[in-house]
Structure prediction request, 103 residues.
Amino acid sequence: MSTSPLSVAQTTVNQMGGTQRLSLMIGARNFMADGNSLSFRFPNNGKIKANYCKVTLNYSDLYDMEIGYIHGENYKIVETTENIYADGLVNSFESKTGLYLSL
Prediction:
């Protein structure tokens, strides 16, 4: 069974609350689907210096999350977390960035 990159990304973003919630709560923008991953940028207003998030569906049907910082052409990985269950994506993002996805 094959799934399209867009459907994987749509499922991932829905598990994090949807594009509208991400945009309103943290200012997320530039949503991209690539293979089994979803990435987006957000303003650097949290507890760590980060403005980029990439969530990848791995072969165990769990998620890997990469938090990074983009400035110009430079990219630095700030923190990675592997094997996150779908219901833990929001908590993982919030604890890594200090930005909240719900009131």
The chain is about 25% helix and 35% strand.
